[in-house]
Amino acid sequence: MLLIAHSRTAKAWSRIYGRTLRRYSAVSSDVPVLQRKNLGGRVFILNRPENLNAITIPMIRSIIPQLQAWESSNACNVIILKSNHPKAFCSGGDVKAITSRLRETRKDACEFFFEKYQMDHYIATLRKPFVAIMDGITMGGGVGVSAHAPFRIATENTIFAMPETVLGFSPDVGASFFLPRLDHCLGFYLGLTGHRLKGEDVLHAGIASHFVPKERLADLEQRLCEVETSEFEAIHEAIEEFAEAPSEPFSLSNDLDTIRDCFKENSVEDIIRSLKAKGNSFAQSALKTISEVAPLAVKVTLEHMRRGKDLDIASAFKQDWIVTEALVNRHPDFLEGCTAKLYEQRKPKWTPDSLESVSRGMVEQCFIAPPDLPPLTLLRDATYMQYPHRRFSLPLERDVMNVVTGVEESVGSYAFESVEALVDWFETHWPFRSVVQEDRSHLLGYEGAMVGGGVAGASTEDASRERFEVVVRKAGVRQAVQAIAERSTRLS
What we know:
The protein contains 22 helices and ten strands. The protein has 492 residues and is of the alpha/beta class.
C-alpha cells in the first residue's frame, strides 16, 4: 500500500512532473479530498498533487463518513472516485509520513494501516455503485481504493503496480484476495516482483473492468451523474457507451506460460528453480528482480497470497492487519527499505540478507497476532468469497474452458468448429446466466449481512431478482476470448 520508492523513479517523476505539480498546486484547494454533488452522482476528488495523491489518515477520516452518508442517501445513485492530478490517481500510502511516525512511535504508524483497511473493506462491500477512475499512477494504497470496486476504469495513462516488496513490505489493502484470483498465476508474479502494467494491460490482466480513453472521462462522469437509478446494470450500460476494446494485445501474452509454470510453485525457492530452468529473457528479468527485494518480504508475500486465495474478503483484510503489524513493528526491513530508497538513495541492507536465511518459522510468525494486538474491527459485518460483480468484467480463462468442455449449460450441445465460432458465441452470450446467478448469490450473501444494519434501501432476494436478468454487451469480449483461445493448448 506504499508509494513506490525506486530512487531513479522518484527522480524521473520530479523531472517530468515537477513543473506541472508546482503550477497545479498553485490553483488547487488545500483540502486533500474534495467532494462534489452533481444530480444523482457523488464525487470524491483526491487532491494532494504535490504528493501524487498519497493517502493520509486525514484523507481516510474525510472519506469514510461521507461514504456512509452517500450510501444511505436515496438522492445518491453512484459514487465516483477520481483524481485532481493530470498524471496520478493515487500513488499509495504516504510512506514518508508513516516512517516519520514509525521512528517516533510504532503504535501511531500502524494506526494508519488499521483505518486504511477499514476504508478499503467498506468500499469493497458498498451497496451503491462505486466507480474508480484509475487515470494515472495507481499503486499500493491507490489499488486498495479501486481494485475492489465493481467498476474500475483504466485509461491510456494508467500505471498499476504493487511494489511493496521493494520496501521490505508485503502487498496489502486486500491484495491477497484479488491477486491470487487473476488468471495464469499473474497475481503472484505482480505481487512478488512489483511489475508495472500500463494502459490497456490493466484491462487485459483483469484488474480494470473497463478501458475508457482519457479524453472521454469528463463526458463519462457527466453521463454517470445523469443515470436516474442506482442499479448496477444501468451504471455498466452508461460506462459501455464510452468504453473501448483493447487496440493492442497484452504485453505479457508471450510470457503467460512462463508466469503460470513458474509462479504456481509453493515456495520462492521452487519459483526461482523454475525460472532458471526456463532460462528465457523474461525469466532472467524476474530472477533479477526477486534477488533485489527483501528476502523476508518476498517469502511472506507468497505465503500471504497462497492463504488469501482461500479467504473471504473480510478475512483477507484481517490477515493484512496481522502481517502488516509484523513487518512494521517486529522486523527492521520496512523502515530500512523506506530509509534507503526514499531518503538516502542507496541499496537497502536486508535482515535476513538472503532467502536461505529466512526460515519457515520466521514466515509463519508473521501470520500470528501477538497477544496485545487489537483485532481489525471492520465497519460492518459483510464479506464474500468471490467478487459479486464479475459479470461487468471480461471473461476469465475458466469461462472459456467451461464453454469448450461443455460445463457451461447455456452452450447445450453446440460444437465449436473454430476459434472464430467460439469468439462469435461469446460476444453474443456473455455474461452467461450462470455468471449472473453466481454474482447474485455472492451479492445476496453480503447484502443480507447488512440488512438491518442501518443501510437505507437494503433489498431482499425477491425485490432484487429482476435486475440480474439482463446485462448489456461488453466491449473487449472478442479480443479477450480470442487471446485465451489462441494461447490455450486445450483448444487445439
